[in-house]
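CORE FACILITY INTAKE
Project code: CF-77B
Contact: R.S. (postdoc)
Sample description: multi-component assembly, two entities in total
Requested service: structural model of the whole complex
Turnaround: standard
Below are the sequence entries exactly as provided by the requester. Do not edit them.
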Amino acid sequence: MGKAGTTMLRGAKIGLRPMQTEDVWHLFKWFNDQQVLENIGRRSGLFCVSVEEERAAVEMMLTSPTNRDFMVIDLGTDMAVGWAGLSEIDLRHASARLEIVIGDPSEWDQGKGTEATRMVREHAFEVMNLHRLHLRVPCRNARAVTCFMAGGFIIEGTLRDDHFHRGRFASSYVMGALRDEGGRY
Amino acid sequence: MLDGKLVRLRAVEQGDLPTFVRWINDPEVTEYLQFEPPMSLEDEVTWYHHMLKGRDKAFAIETLDGRLIGNVGLVGLDWRNRRTDLGIMIGEKDAWSQGYGTDTITVLLRYLFEELGLHRVGLYADIGNQRAIRCYEKCGFKREGVVRAHRFKDGRYLDSVLMSILRPDWDEGRE
């Protein structure tokens, strides 16, 4: 599936292909990695997520009309290295929430998240005809904030103490990108 | 509710359906419209429940003093492409040619362009329905072409005129 050019949006280093049921195994692995979980402030879950829970989550994502989920594929190795999803898609107001996770820490700091951000952003604006993307990211996650800024997002505000992390409350940024601003990525 | 100069658009209620059925079964009313009379009240109730669940949306048209005179509906509302088609019926014949249709379309277009942010509103008019075509043109619709043999009625195929108004047309008309 990953090799078929027509089913993938191709960038320079990475491609995006639609998420499928068997990707549960990737997500199960990534969302059980403490390094990954550390700074994404995932909304749900207590400790580790089971395959069954992840399967149910994927089934929801694949069948929901307000979700559009992609796997981030390394074009060099043809392996899935992350997940990029739009949720809360609101066509009336032309907005959606973006989430991107590069799941394998050895793939970090290579610009893959930034490229995925730009590609999903372009897809959202040029294909899905959306006007606004928004996301929430813990303030301490400098890597992600840098990535999203490079991908055309700005910090719109701070959600003070919106989650509990390592013994204390911590804050998140709300970041947003509009279709008509900031030139053409 | 949407108020115009002459009409008010409100949601369709169950109690409106018998009136709608009376209009649909009047051949003069539906001469140029896409209905297949005879239609029963039960057919209309089925349509109503289908509409409540689906993407199509209809409004009842009242005069400002509360008399039900017609209905107008969105067909195939498409958010991604930000467009819809519409269909209108003024069912009370003594309300024809008094500007109610024009006012209805104007009020509805303002809502579709300025509140819903649509980019295109299209419709098909029977090629013989000159009164309707004039009304649509007055509202800013442009003719895009003739759709040949678009409708089968009384044993023969009839052409329709395809018309549309785009958001820039609407803005230009407001200036």
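Facility notes:
- Chain B has a mean pLDDT of 94.
- Residues 2-174 of chain B form a domain with the Aminopeptidase fold (CATH 3.40.630.30).
Invoice: internal transfer
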